[in-house]
Queue: 4 jobs
Job 1
Amino acid sequence: MSEAGPGGLPRKGVPYADVIAEMEAASAQDADWRAARTWSLVYHADRAVEAIVQAAYSRFMATNGLSPVAFPSLKRFESEVMAGVRTLLRAPDGAAGSMTSGGTESLLLAVKAARDWAAVHRRLHGEYEFLVPETAHPALYKAAHYLGVRPVPVPVGPDFRADADAARKLVTPRTILVVGSAPAFPHGVVDPIGPLAALAAEHGILCHVDASVGGMMLPFLERLGHTIPPWDFRVPGVTSISTDLHKYGYAAKGASAIVYGSRALRRFQFFVQPGWPGGMYASPTLAGTRPGGAIAAAWAAMRFLGEDGYLQLARTASEAASRLMAGIRSIPGLFVLGEPDMTLFAFAARDFDTYAVGDSMRRRGWRLDRQQLPPSLHLVVTANHAQVVDAFLEDLGQSAAEARGQAPGVAGAAYGMLGEAPAGTDAEDFLLDFLDQAL
Ligand SMILES: Cc1ncc(COP(=O)(O)O)c(C=O)c1O
């Protein structure tokens, strides 16, 4: 980097080729997701999908989805993406939604819409609560934190699915929403959406299904003949569903979708300010400026792959996941947690240190997220991982053999998600320090 000027900018601009070279060098230690040795964070189908997504993103990189008037192209892309998503989610006639920047934004909007719906339809003000399974994504707790709604955790059973009977006892007059995951990220199991949605309907409240990770995979697995627990708009009482296009939709980062059962419900998601001197302002989602690149790239991925392409990718990923699970179950001392409904799952060691297995795998170049409660290692399997199944299982067998007999140690920081805080530290402080030091 040339000498820094005030504020850390280089005094003179750096030539194009040098900037490119610096970026290449900077990424040398990044996770090599194309080689399929990383098991989270990146959903890579293959080079062909990557190429079309990249082309679309670059072509529309400067555009802004905030104004459908200025960019009719983006309006068309978003409406076609949403039509495709509505079909996959089996949404009823009259359903409506929006593209958002990711699973977190979609969930924030689902909670906001539920809160504002309750204020109008149930004249409920002040303290709001919603039911959220313990295994549901932290984005729901983030939504609660940002929106002033109290999350009420619903315990999960030994199968890691939300306990619908326990949920029933947690409903109060202040409950505005019941959430279920399809599936929950940690163990890949779908919550009992039928009973949860029925509970919501009985109390005249809303039910959101977080299908962030499953919405672009479960419909194709169903077509491939897999038995999938009911989770979509065919389940009576489900009022909204979110699904991420930047996960198993294989789009570029920054693309998710939320669908409500009716346009009337979607209106509670919107924000408008008619009196702004800059002009009457209307924003459908949380973001102001909406990156056109992400919208165009999602459209391009769906157009390029079509149903056949997604079916093929789902088939390859689920075969790879089945081979992995069978291989893991055959390694002495290792087991898969629960009965995963999809292509993501967790495994652990029965009587030796699970995290030591993860450490050994890391030394062999594999990046696995650590989970807790109980300790486990996590895999999100995509079609791209089919090429490494045998090599992974071979290394896992050796890593388990190495870890066997080792006493459980202190986990410390791992990749992606953190395992657990070092003994004697406050977990919240540990995580806040982690964020502080990362930036
Ligand atoms: C079930 C579920 N919900 C929500 C999210 C959050 O999505 P994002 O990271 O795109 O905000 C994830 C991410 O993995 C997820 O698996």
Job 2
Amino acid sequence: MRSFSYQRASDPQAALQALAATSAVNAPLTQSPTQPLAGGTTLIDLMKLDVMRPERLVDINPLAGNWAEINLDGGNLKLGALAHMSQVAGHAEVQQHYPVIADSLKLAASPQLRNMATLGGNVLQRTRCSYFRDVSYAECNKRNPGSGCAAMDGFNRMHAVLGTSDQCIATYPGDFAQALIALDADIEITGKAGPRTMRFAEFHKAPGDTPAIETVLAPGELISGFSVNGRWPRSVYLKVRDRQSYEFALASAAVALDLQDGVINDARLALGGVATIPWRVREAEGLLKGQKLDDGLAERAAAVAFADASGRQHNAFKIALGKRVVAHALKKAATMEI
Ligand SMILES: Cc1cc2nc3c(=O)[nH]c(=O)nc-3n(C[C@H](O)[C@H](O)[C@H](O)COP(=O)(O)OP(=O)(O)OC[C@H]3O[C@@H](n4cnc5c(N)ncnc54)[C@H](O)[C@@H]3O)c2cc1C
Ligand code: SF4
């Protein structure tokens, strides 16, 4: 591991100043020489692997006093970026009113990791593509722009079938982001000019020609929180993986439904494990609205969700698997007791 300097920020202003003073504004955030440190479960991991090489870390954990809230006042939800995954997953009211959030966090990583890891760090976690994480492979456009992609003709079983480009086919690995998208959440970003809010669905960037740019977050900015309007008790996160615990998704679906007399008034659907970014499928949502869910409709919505999917040598199975996950998650959400 390379040497780096460490600075502990006492409050948001101090953190922003430390980041602004040393961030290279024109570099992609992922390659910025200064990185905020939250739980460290992604960042320190990638530094040990020599994938990320920051020269300076700004520890933002002291900001938890400002940015770790779990607030359900007024019928909405606010989550601070420094809330730990385990705190949110175990929160009784989050479980009751937003089961898709509680389950997406509970089904992620391990208890020890969830105790350390924060929500802000979670949505910024990086792909588990083994060629990205192993620097002995020279070809990786995400790690080393312009070098090629070892996964295209390599072992690509875990890779994406949606949102890929001819530069990168890496899967976005997280779970919580799909829940946020299914709830139409907002993300709050704080920079020198103060906080700004945007749709979380617009936060991640598909690889296109610049796979090293993964989000709209700029160097020197921090995620301060997330918010969801209304309650979504009829919501589900379904995750299928190679083993039932401590494993990333092969395919997952986050579903939120609003049913009135059995008819779908509103439907939200996001896919994980199969796409390069957390993937919202609005066409499938449109098909569901105004209908009563039965097996046929669930399967048609699943087919629409994967209409643009394209598999490679080892990952084509994810298309059939993903459709089953979507259909099952929709049926589970429609029939759950609330
Ligand atoms: C073995 C293992 C298994 C895992 N399994 C899963 C899984 O199944 N599902 C899943 O979803 N995740 C999984 N994870 C990922 C884990 O959830 C993330 O590593 C964790 O959520 C990251 O949070 P952190 O606070 O530790 O982030 P850090 O490692 O501290 O930070 C990650 C990145 O985000 C930046 N950052 C952190 N906070 C902020 C902020 N507030 N504003 C701006 N930038 C910030 C950092 O600079 C860094 O670049 C797994 C991780 C490991 C190691
Ligand atoms: S899929 Fe993306 S992350 Fe993986 S080797 Fe190719 S460019 Fe790198």
Job 3
Amino acid sequence: MTLLEKLKTPEIAEDLHDRGYSRRDLGRIAALLGGTVAIGRAAPALAQQSARAVVGAVRIGSNECWTGPLPAGAAAAMKIVTEGNRYEPNNEHEKLFAAVSAVEGLPATHIRAWPGSSDPLNRVAVTFASPSRGIVTADPTYEQIWRTGAWLGAKVTKVPLGPNYQHDVKAMLAADPNAGLYYVCSPNNPTGTLTPIEDIVWLAENKPKDAVLVVDEAYIHFAGTANAAKLVASRSDVLVMRTFSKLFGMAGMRLGLTFAAPTLHEKMMRYDGFQVSNMLPMTAVACGTASLPLAAEIKARRDEMVAVREKTIAHIESRGLKVLPGSHANMFMVDWKAKTPKQMMDAFLAQNVQIGRAWSAYPTMSRVTVGSADDMAKFRIALDKILMA
Ligand SMILES: Cc1ncc(COP(=O)(O)O)c(C=O)c1O
């Protein structure tokens, strides 16, 4: 059965119809879930400014890790290449779930694995948002869900971050009390700021019962603080997303996780069974399984990043520029004052340094990713040259 045929089966078609989707929307939903329309990271051309890599430049524009997988992860991936003839040489998915379960304290039944975060984010949007049930996010935040909402015809409500650049969860609920999906990104992209767990719990407890709260924790290992994973053990209306693309240095290898009650996962999987989830390249699965339990190595990577970030921020501020405070992730936002983010991006590129872009909520700022100590030394030299020119 094709995806479109599946969407037309009475059980799914009725649910979609009840939530305000028309028959004409089914093709759009099938294109989104089938990956024939690129909404997420796979489609940099759709992003405001293309994230196309400048080969050879200092790459601090895409929030990638400055280095590859943890050595034990890379070794596990390389070892399994020699068994690439087997679909799954030794129950690798099960081993991944056992490792995640031990680290997060969640039953394996609540864990699913994906090739990154884009697909589950689209699925959860189709399943809980619709033309009659909107999406609420912070502003600025990671905008994939904005594009997905627009594609699905769901109203997207963007709520400014609070005074400490945390998600203003009360304002988010007030802005659309009947939304189908509330999205919290913590640490937030592009500000790096955290939203306290108590606020996340508050939103889970006060949103409409049939809405879902998605907590995107792509950068949580860089923060090293409390996370929302445990919420899914006691609630069936919260989905937590993780990715190995950031601290674990696996952006090109593609591995992500969702944590949710089995009923929630089943609902978002019903369109095409198990096509994308839990059918991953063994190299990524082996690498993730070996990396996740390495608490000391994770902390060392986090500490390295924090030291480089703070040194760089101090340098920028010593030049009279403002850095948005409170980042707990491998990024920060700089306010350039006299120059526009586009001018600064071009000026840095002329110095062979590729910085990130601006968000419309903060039009005078650029996002800068924290690279290696060497990358950031080059960034500082380039900045001084630009300011002196
Ligand atoms: C907050 C957030 N979520 C999810 C993603 C998607 O990452 P991936 O698809 O590599 O897992 C990103 C990527 O930058 C991100 O910043």
Job 4
Amino acid sequence: MGKLYHSITELVGNTPIVEFERLEKALHLKGRIAGKLEYFNPAGSHKDRMALEIIEAAEKRGEISPDKTTLVEFTSGNTGVALASFAAAKGYRFKIGIQNGVSVERSKLIEAYQAEITDVPKELIDGVFEKGMEAFKDVIDYMCKNEENAYPTRQLDNPDNVNAHYKHTGPEIWNDTDGKVDVFVGGVGTGGSTHGISKFLKEQNKEIKVVITQPDPEDVVNPKLDGVEDGGFHGIHQVHDENGITPMAPGNFNDEYVDQYEFVTYAETLRAIHLLAEYEGIFVGASSGASLAVAIKQALLEENTDKLIAVLLPDNGERYLSEDLQKVRPELEEKAGF
Ligand SMILES: Cc1ncc(COP(=O)(O)O)c(C=O)c1O
């Protein structure tokens, strides 16, 4: 029987999860690692899931429609790419504000899908994510000014972001591992993916351990580290310190389902990316590398012998070629503990 699709949006989700058997052997890992390859989504990242859910849930509630609504978002990249693609596929106007420091590839993709890139004054943008939700709202209010039917997609606190992963990504991991997953590793940008997946997995089996990847603060505050402009973690940030949840934690983040926070250095991130390319022929982006590094460290632990560690890999390395993510840097990477 034929299988003719009618929209690119029908191809979102059902991404493959792959066990990294050659990597396990090469590093003599005690645990097993399976990576969920989210770059198989049609616009290239896990953000496709939430972009589609946010649009379609609002459509079902009767809040938006292509003939009258303008979608509005301020985003560092992958969300913008996903929203731009699906806005085009569904016939919506989409206004986007872009954060400083976005990879050239991602901003050019947004341009390709013909989203309307809006200039937001520098004083509103500077440090907006660090300042927290109020500053973010000011940016969105600015972008919605003079728009009659603007619908801010609000990735940071829109529950439909979490729902996308609770309804789909979590169940896919559970089903594709036959319920055998023991540990889940993911990072936090908006918190949507990790929160939705963890909630679903813990509801199936509360013994599943959830480990959150956090960029080492040293590597983030030393932006000139070995020529890396912004610490290079792209998409994830620290949400927990010794005093608990930090002001950078977005509205969608909830630590109810978190068992452990694990710091990862940029050296470990690069090493993980290059090992995956070398042994598995898979080239992922920096947030994926960071979570993979955490998964590798988990898989080296005696307590995780024969355990299955599932790790979310949000996008692929082609989105960061302009930043030389592919380049092996032996002096830096030998500092990694694996
Ligand atoms: C490449 C990348 N990885 C990870 C994340 C974090 O995912 P989430 O927003 O679901 O927490 C993002 C976005 O925020 C991202 O663009």
